[in-house]
Amino acid sequence: RLETERLEAEEEEHLEAKRLTAQEELLKKEEEEALVAKEAKIQAERMEEEQIRRKEQEEQLAEAKERLAEEERRAEELRLEAEEAKRQEAERIEAERLETE
Question: Measured between alpha carbons, how far is residue 24 from residues 8, 12, 14, 76 in Å?
Fold first, then answer.
């Protein structure tokens, strides 16, 4: 009877050890999965931040293009005004020349 109890106790200890080992392995696997999920979340956040940065850069580029187009329009206006001023000055000089002749 003592031998049977000893064998049963050893078997129980063995089963408990197996259960603990399986529980540890499961916990380790869950920790690994949690780490992978955390890394995936971090990667997704980085991708989202990169998309936001890219969108901001695209918006800045569009604004810069608009400013450039406006500056080009203004430069063209100034060029035309300068041409008109030169033409008027040439006409004035020609009129004065004709008057003095």
Answer: 24, 18, 15, 77
DSSP secondary-structure letter at 66? Answer: H
For the stretch 27-63, pLDDT in tens is 999 999 999 999 999 999 999 999 999 999 999 999 9
Tally of residues, the chain: 101
**pTM assigned to the model:** 0.55
Q: How far apart are the first and last CA of the chain?
A: 148
| Six token digits for residue 26 | 């499961």
How far is residue 74 from each of residues 67, 85, 101, measured CA to CA in Å?
A: 10, 16, 40
